[in-house]
Design brief:
This protein is α/β, with parallel strands linked by helices and 319 residues long. The chain is built from nine helices and 13 strands. A hairpin with a 6-residue loop joins strand 2 and strand 3. It holds the Pfam family PfkB.
Length: 319
């Protein structure tokens, strides 16, 4: 496969809108079992925070050299201050965070010993934002529309992407010829009608279409159902070790995985959607954009946690 070449003179502008969260890692060591219960005793060495969800999509864009931007909501709590601190570290082109008193900032705490995760604790509120907050987010987005190439909607079903906000964003983007890409955990995708590209994984595609994917025939049928429901131009389905599938112009094609080893799949979907957005904004056709996304995913699944892939790493994989 040839190396991926991006024009250094083209400035790519991508905005991520969706659910931001904190990935909290409690790293430690373990040398004994508790006398109180048959569980491991972890001696804590460090607490590490990083951006997850829509924040991880943004980090992946930054790793590609794209000055991405972010619009989201968080709770009005101490964890939202950590989110701000982490955002400031990566200096996005712009970001807008609405503090919602009715929710907690989503945080996923993982206890890790020797790179092995023992347990994950989630603190979150899965409620969609009210119309007032949706209007705030949309007004901010509309004011910064000029020059945007791609909008990525990162929907972890935590509450940012309400039906109203999604409809307003897609309508505005279509009017201004801006590519829209959706990665959603939602079982139904009809609220994303009019989007350019939908990227589920295999399980999500089965749930969204109501079709059990067991072979290429059922995979194509599921993609067609999603395309019909959303009126999108392209459906891209990540298939884990089986690679990636593309449904475009009523035709299904598959590309094998590039992964040499799989260590941790955390955040791999964020990498794929960021890579697709970056490649399409750079003028790639969908087939080459999926090659790029496939390669980026192969890099991150060989790393621990919500990792990112750089252009150099991706090109080394394909060299």
């Amino acid at each position: 496969m040839p190396l991926f070449k991006f024009a250094s003179t083209k400035k790519v502008n991508i905005c991520v809108i969706g659910d931001i969260m904190l990935d909290h890692y409690i790293n430690g060591s373990c040398e004994r079992i508790s006398p109180e219960a048959p569980v491991q005793v972890v001696d804590v060495v460090a607490d590490v925070y990083s951006l997850g969800g829509a924040g991880n999509v943004l980090k992946n864009l930054q790793a590609f050299g794209c000055k991405g931007s972010l619009i989201s909501i968080s709770g009005n709590d101490e964890n939202s201050k950590i989110v701000d601190e982490e955002l400031e570290k990566i200096t996005p082109a712009f970001y807008h965070m609405v503090l919602d008193d009715s929710r907690r900032t989503t945080i996923k705490t993982r206890v890790v010993v020797n790179n092995h995760q023992l347990i994950r604790l989630d603190r979150e509120d899965k409620i969609y934002c009210n119309d007032s907050i949706a209007n705030d987010l949309f007004d901010f987005f509309k004011a910064r529309l000029n020059g945007l190439d791609v909008v990525i909607l990162s929907d972890y079903c935590k509450g940012t992407l309400s039906d109203k906000l999604v409809a307003d964003i897609i309508k505005l983007c279509n009017t201004n010829n801006i590519i829209t890409i959706v990665d959603s955990k939602n079982k139904g995708l009809t609220k994303y009608k009019g989007v350019t590209l939908v990227k589920p994984n295999k399980k999500e595609a089965s749930l969204a279409s109501g079709i059990n994917i067991v072979d290429d025939i059922s995979l194509e049928a599921a993609c067609k159902k999603i395309a019909d429901d959303t009126a999108c131009k392209t459906v891209v389905v990540t298939l884990s070790e089986a690679g990636i599938a593309i449904y475009h112009n009523n035709t299904l094609t598959k590309k094998p995985t590039k992964a040499l080893s799989v260590f941790d799949v955390t955040g791999a979907g964020d990498t794929v959607i960021a890579a697709l957005g970056f490649a399409l904004a750079s003028g790639f056709e969908i087939s080459e954009a999926c090659d790029f996304a496939n390669s980026a995913a192969a890099i991150v699944v060989a790393k621990f946690g919500s990792a990112v892939a750089t252009l150099d790493e991706i090109n080394q994989l394909n060299n």
